[in-house]
Amino acid sequence: MLTPSAPPLDRIIDGRSSLNGTAESRALSRRVARGETERLRHGLFRDALPPVTQLPWEHRPAELRRRYLEKAAAVALTRRSTVVFSHRTALAILGLPFLPPWPDEVDILEERDSPRRSKRGIRVHFGDLDADDLMPWGEFWVTRPERTLADIARSLMPVFAVPALDAGLVELSRDGIRAILEREPNVKNTQRALAALDFADPRSESPGESGSRVLMHLFGAPPPELQTRHPSPIRGRRYFRTDFEWPELKKIGEFDGREKFLKDELLGGKSPGQAVYEEKLREDARRREGNDVGRWGMHAVRRPADLRTALGALGIPMTRGNRALSVLW
Question: Are 164 and 91 in contact (CB under 8 A)?
């Protein structure tokens, strides 16, 4: 179940009661000036944190998400009216993936006739605020997963929306998201959002795989089969799966994100070296079956020309996409 964890408030320093020239407020100001404390919003602070690059790689995504959610919580704590988090901020709250880095601004949802406008690190979106579309996040509010994914599908290009849709569809109903989109069929980008929803596939196992599929579609590559089983060459395991496969071409594509070899929950107790060795055994087995194997990482998703090069080197035909889909994609 996609339910939000508690807001991360423990590192937030509330200085709102000491902002009137007191000794405490002057001490806070000196700490900010020395770079020992950073200001999140007016009256709310956080002790300065080390650069994320100083953390072990496998801890960085969670820390970046936490720092972004601390910004969001600070926004809610300093608003006089009820805040409803939406869009990218709702993805972070719900634990759904977002392919680019988390943004500097916090997304909130307001009624269509609201006078509020985007400013100072807050991005205001306008739409219907149906109570059934909302759920609590601690003492705050956030759009439910289905509404969040409908909003994301409308507001982001498919290469960024599909990774969240793929992950969400592991637990959610496609029809539930579609129903929200079809409530307002004339809203901008609804048709593009419906196309992205139809394209989404919960068999994709990472944002990098999802982004790769979108780019393959844009390049006009034939749709690959996902998670195809092969007999395992490793004792004690019956089979392994490939990320992308074109059986008629005898071609296999593998997305190799760092987490595949570094993240504890994916390593399953193996060392990174053992994981790399087993991956080599699997690739050798695929080649013995007569397949060509190509690999790429997140850099190729962030720089689509690199993925096109990798697919071309693998021998995947590409037609540069279908003009009939250009409006949707």
Answer: yes
